[in-house]
Design brief:
With 186 residues, the chain is of the alpha+beta class. It has a domain of 127 residues: Gcn5-related N-acetyltransferase (GNAT) (Aminopeptidase). The chain has 6 helices and 8 strands. A hairpin with a 7-residue loop joins β4 and β5.
């Protein structure tokens, strides 16, 4: 059951990730259409998902949001009408450069939900934490993710050549950054 509402956009709601969302997360991490674009080569069983909650989601230095569609609309979301469609994480929010990561279930790719959700999280991080910038990376073959970062004002800052072995070959990672002043200018 999705947790409390943290941010509300026009079409998506960001909610806290709760342990009850573990099954949704576990299914997503097993899906090759999500796993490979993220560079995650393995899936998690139930015990590993429990460890993931303890070590990552519940870590006080990270923030995680469940991206949801609330059928009742922005003013009156009913809990039984909430559909989780993805996650946005920000790690090391107490550093100068926290790292952003995100994914949506494939059925909702290309509809603009990812851009709206990531935009809400960037706004949340800059409003809530005293950070100078936010970093993110995408793999060279993930044009959708790279386009999303570009559209939000992130700037390509570097490339890790053949940095990760994914789906049978070594792939480049492309590093992006967004400075607070660049975000404020938007």
């Amino acid at each position: 059951m999705p947790g409390a509402r943290i941010e509300q956009g026009e079409r998506v709601t960001l909610r806290t990730v709760e342990r009850a969302d573990g099954e949704f997360l576990q299914r997503a991490h097993a899906d090759p259409k999500i796993r490979y674009p993220l560079g995650t080569v393995t899936h998690m069983n139930g015990n590993q998902m429990d460890d993931h909650f303890e070590e990552f989601i519940e870590d006080e230095h990270n923030v995680s949001f469940l991206v949801c569609l609330d059928d009742a609309g922005p003013d009156h979301p009913a809990e039984d009408e909430t559909e989780p469609i993805g996650v946005v994480n920000v790690t090391h929010v107490d550093w100068d450069r926290p790292a952003l990561a995100y994914w949506l279930v494939p059925d909702h790719h290309g509809e603009g939900y990812g851009k709206e959700a990531v935009s809400l999280v960037v706004k949340y991080v800059f409003r809530t934490f005293d950070v100078h910038s936010i970093g993110a990376h995408a793999f060279d073959y993930n044009a959708a993710s790279r386009g999303l970062l570009d559209s939000l004002g992130f700037v390509e800052e570097g490339r890790g050549r053949e940095a990760r072995f994914i789906d049978g070959e070594y792939r480049d990672t492309v590093q992006y950054g967004l400075l607070r002043r660049e975000w404020n200018e938007q």
